[in-house]
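User: Please go through the entry that follows and flag anything odd:
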Amino acid sequence: MLAADGATERREEGVVRASIEVVVVPVTDVDRAKRFYVEQLGWTADHDASPTPDIRFVQVTPPGSGCSIAFGTGLSEMAPGSLKAVMAVVDDADAARQELLDAGVDASPVDEQGWGRFVTFADPDGNRWTLQQLPHRG
């Protein structure tokens, strides 16, 4: 099987290879969410389209990420604020926390664990994000 980059892709029998590219985030106010993610967090606004009167699709991507988030109207049956377990990896938990605070986002103190250093924050609807600084591997 050829991969998107033209390289030969190995596929084990019965195993579907998949790449997570978009996570849908349930929100109540699409414009407020877009301001939060784009203006406060500095994420890139990739799309904002309404293909039908019942659907609005907004997609934003954190700098350097291969995975985007999408929110809007008519996209999900999840209750706004119900997403509580999205984790993203950062190089420096202290710097990430400070950037959040500087942007006016309430962020937890850095939580030191044996498997990493963690900072949590929430969007205006209460969808909770965790930022993880991986432990040094040596």
